[in-house]
Amino acid sequence: MKKRLNITIEENLLDKIKTYADQNDTSISSLVEEHFEALIKPRPKLKNGMSLVEYMKSLPKFDIPDNYDYKEDYYKAKAKKMGYEDLF
């Protein structure tokens, strides 16, 4: 069962929202409902209730050599993916 909700927003924002809804073949009501659903959706939990920062700190560390050329590796991988690995 749907219920009516009245909200007040700035006029210029409403104009932009109307344009967006029209361009995306949807209604403002659907946009608001989808946004509210996203707000109350349970977020995935990390193990042991730790924060994302704590989780990232707990990951194993690895050393990158000082002379590592990441750009060269990037372009080699791109060339290989596109079938031009013989250029390097």
Main attributes?
51% helix; 4 helices
What does this structure look like?
This protein is mostly helical. It has one domain. The chain has four helices and no strands. It has helices spanning 11-23, 28-40, 52-58, 70-81. Pfam families: DUF6364. InterPro entries: DUF6364, Ribbon_hlx_hlx.
Could you give the topology of this structure?
Blueprint: H1 11-23, H2 28-40, H3 52-58, H4 70-81
Short structural description:
InterPro entries: DUF6364, Ribbon_hlx_hlx. The protein is mainly α and 88 residues long.
Alpha plus pi helix count: 4
Number of domains: 1
Q: Let me know the largest β-sheet.
A: none
Radius of gyration: 24 Å
Structural class: mainly alpha
